[in-house]
Design brief:
- By secondary structure, the chain is α+β, with helices and mostly antiparallel strands.
- About 25% of the residues lie in helices and about 30% in strands.
- The protein is built from nine helices and 16 strands.
- It has helices at about 15-25, 30-35, 35-40, 90-100, 110-120, 165-170, 185-195, 245-255, 270-275; strands spanning about 5-10, 45, 45-55, 60-65, 70-80, 100-105, 120-125, 125-130, 155-160, 200-210, 215-225, 230-240, 260-265, 280, 305, 315.
- The strands form two sheets. Strands 1, 2, 3, 4, 5, 6, 7 and 15 form an eight-stranded mixed β-sheet that branches.
């Protein structure tokens, strides 16, 4: 007879046992073993953002989660102990549903992906777009077919929101209304202004129309690899239409900072909008635009996005725990 599981929200004192379980059943994940990242993603007052299954006083399954806004969360570290029944996954999922959470997923393990499918989740891939700048040599990308496309449109003004106070002053909550997963000013503040590693410096930009209306935000992060630089667009909030009127901003960023390219992983932004700005969709066959940069791995990647079928879904590289250090920085 199968033993009963106790499925519950994890407490602070469960931390060491959770880390030990994940290290043993999977690998030494940086999000758990790096104290700064663990506190940032999973500490929540007197609770942890983990649901665990316990049998005979031993953790036999975990599911971490990273908060978006409201009751929307990204799943992380779905693990079931070897020998336990895979149906335990469904019991964990039921716990989340009973608590009113809406779950989204990024790059699940293959066995978890199949379990998501059984539960009726959709699995798509983020599109990878890049805007290449003209250089004699590319050290980060591998360019076999150079496609340089320019757009100098300056219909709208781009302003940087340098601080949390400016974000709150400038941005109306209405900009977040159609975001799925849900996002908010508080989410933006934690995710981009208070990320615990200064090596990952995010910049939040707003597109302002001639009438002073802001209906679009986007977030960038510069990264240096082997002495060369790229710019990553890691999030887009609000209307996508205004992006077509700021081509000059991206052209100037490339020129001023000598970027090899600007890239953007996204789902739910129309191809036409990004292509109008001179971005090309990475098709995994001609050019290599690597995603793994710490250390540099010269290959094209896929990022899967898991969601319940609903209109207006969007996914980006900075969702969940995707855009984070993959090396341990010295404190």
């Amino acid at each position: 007879m199968e033993s009963n599981y106790q499925i519950r929200r994890a407490e602070l004192e469960d931390k060491d046992n959770i880390i030990r379980f994940v290290n043993l059943e999977w690998k030494k994940a940086q999000t758990l073993n790096d104290d700064k990242l663990f506190a940032y993603y999973f500490a929540d007052s007197d609770k942890l953002n983990f649901v665990i299954a316990v049998k005979n006083n031993e953790i036999v399954a975990t599911c971490g989660f990273i908060k978006a806004a409201g009751q929307d969360i990204w799943g992380s570290s779905w693990l079931i102990k070897k020998g336990e029944k895979p149906t335990l996954f469904f019991q964990l999922m039921k716990f989340f549903e009973e608590e009113g959470f809406t779950i989204w997923g990024l790059n699940p393990e293959p066995y978890t992906k199949e379990l998501y499918r059984i539960l009726g989740f959709e699995i798509s891939k983020l599109n990878h777009f890049y805007k290449l700048f003209d250089k004699e040599e590319y050290k980060i990308a591998t360019i076999r077919e150079k496609q340089i496309r320019s757009n100098w449109s300056d219909r709208y003004k781009v302003i940087e929101l340098h601080s949390e106070a400016i974000l709150k002053e400038k941005i109306n909550d209405a900009i977040f209304e159609k975001q799925k997963p849900k996002k908010s000013c508080d989410y933006m503040i934690k995710r981009y202004y208070r990320f615990p590693y200064p090596q990952y410096q995010y910049r939040v930009w707003a597109i302002e129309t001639s009438k002073g209306i802001i209906s679009t935000l986007f977030v960038t992060r510069e990264q240096t690899v082997e002495g060369e630089k790229i710019l990553r667009i890691v999030d887009i909030i609000g209307s996508e239409n205004e992006l077509t009127g700021i081509g000059k901003f991206f052209e100037e960023q490339g020129e001023m900072n000598d970027y090899e390219y600007i890239d953007c992983w996204c789902l739910g932004i129309s191809d036409e909008v990004l292509e109008s700005l001179g971005f090309v969709k990475c098709d995994n066959s001609v050019n290599i635009i690597p995603d793994r940069l710490e250390p540099l791995e010269k290959q094209n990647e896929e990022i899967c996005f898991v969601y319940k079928n609903m209109p207006g879904v969007r996914g980006f590289r900075a969702d969940g725990d995707m855009d984070r250090p993959n090396i341990w920085f010295k404190n």
